[in-house]
Amino acid sequence: MPRIVLLNVGTAAPRAVHRQLWLLREGDVVVSPLVPDEEFLRYVCGELGVDRARVRFVSAGENLTDEALTAPALVREVRALLGHAAWELLPAHHTEGVAAFADLCGLPADTGLRFAAQRGPVLLNRKSHFRQLAVGAEVPVPEGTVVTGPAALAAAVERYLPRTGTVVVKRDDDLGGQGNVALTLKETRPLPGTRATLAADAPEAAADVLWAELTDDRNPVLAVETYHRSTDSFYAEYLIGPAGDVTFLNSGTIRRRADTDPAAPELVWVGLELPAELPAGTSARALTASARMVALAAAIGYRGHINVDGIVTGTGEVLFNEANARWGGSLALHAVGERLLGPAYLDTHVLSGLRDVPALPLPAALDVLRRHGLAFSPETGEGAVVLGYDPSGERPLECVVLAPTRERARALEAGIRDAVEEVRR
Q: How many structural domains comprise the chain?
């Protein structure tokens, strides 16, 4: 069945949009915030074996908000491409606007779209709701609570701070840890999953500041959790099908490093590495617990991709900290693995994402990979592809390394960094 792919990824940033092109199939109609860079599009189609002429694009010229998705001109342009065939709708986020778009395009309202029309996915994407649902589904979460005012925030900090010496205060709806601030009795160094670490010597004053900073009309509550130092940060990604069937797609480790600037308040996100590097027993517990959360999402009517994020503590305990009912950052990597290596790629390979490769024009980047023997080769089953690209050169390249072992992946990563640095000198 042909697909309408909605790149409503929450931004119109070129690199974030371009990385999703690895999901393309022949026959797709792609609704995008921008006209994709043709050179990069042809590169992706060439790697995937997709006929570029059989993929059609409709550009909104702006971020695909719900308002943009239901603009009459956009809907008319999409409908003109659909004809009378049956279509599968594949949005990054299921929102009210997606449900309205589907209706305007004459697509049938299935369970997932009806759920989205009532803002159902919001139940799964907010930190406060996650804690409520996870506890109900017996999914292990850090000790904590949801607070509704600065006085309750100060009381929660004082209550949970002694447990580990650190708590994390979470904005209710945010991405990538950007709404998470740690308060600690220990050294105020950057911590994984937070954007800042503050001294907790005056909880009431800190609570007033954080309440004013992290709440607004759309985020009227905060979550407060005991912060645990982790040995691993991981996620598990699933797909809930039209009938509510749950399919495990992939798992991965979240890789971070210290910033080269010692004054930086947060760690640098290097990328994701698939599959997650967890001991067998820990992995089994993590997938069993995360699947309970996904089964609950399916039972209440959510359909589509969903990710559940967690950590492994120093004592081997598995704890979960959020769910995201949308495409995850790993989905493009997963598509690369399946399309270039086959559906069983997790059995034979490691996929290592690099989000911080210094910017180069695409021809120069591809030339560097090929000249140094670093480009992916179907014959050897290893090498790198350019996953995300910003034609303006304002953002780093995003690459993904495919390798038979983690050790080989690290060697290829080092080769990429050295080769790019040589060109940039």
A: 3
Q: What is the pLDDT of residues 69-108, one digit of tens each?
A: 999 999 999 999 998 889 999 999 999 999 999 999 999 9
Which domain-ending residue is among 86, 121, 156?
121
pLDDT in tens, 108-164: 999 999 999 999 999 999 999 999 999 999 999 999 999 999 999 999 999 999 999
State pTM to two decimals.
0.94
Is 361 in the same domain as 277? yes
210 and 239 assigned to the same domain? no
Contact 313, 228 (CB under 8 A): yes
Q: Within 13 A of 120's CA, how many CA atoms are on the CB side?
A: 20
318 lies in the same domain as 184: no
- Select from 51, 43, 65, 56 the least CA-distant residue to 4: 56
The reply to whether 113 and 151 lie within a common domain is no
* SS3 at position 300: helix
Query: 98 in the Ramachandran plot: left (φ > 0), alpha (ψ -120 to 50) or beta?
Result: alpha
- 423, with CB counted inside 10 A (0-12, 13-18, 19+), is middle
Q: Where are the alpha helices (DSSP H) in 345-387?
A: 345-348, 362-371
Q: Say if residues 156 and 144 touch (Cβ distance below 8 Å).
A: yes
8 Å CB contact between 231 and 278: no
- CB-based burial label for 299 (10 Å; 0-12, 13-18, 19+): exposed
Rounded-to-integer distance, Cα 7 and Cα 17, Å:
7
Task: Give me the chain's average pLDDT, please.
Answer: 94
**Inter-CA distances, 104 with 115, 130, 207, Å:** 17, 32, 46
Backbone angles phi, psi at 5, to 5 degrees: -100, 120
Residue-wise pLDDT for 252-273, tens only, equals 999 988 888 887 888 888 899 9
Q: Give the count of alpha carbons within 13 A of 86, CB side only.
A: 3
Q: What is the pLDDT of residue 176?
A: 65
Domain limit, last residue, from 226, 247, 267: 226
The whole domain housing 100 covers 3-121
Both 299 and 329 in one domain: the answer is: yes
Q: How far is the CA of 31 from the CAs of 17, 72, 261, in angstroms?
A: 11, 14, 39
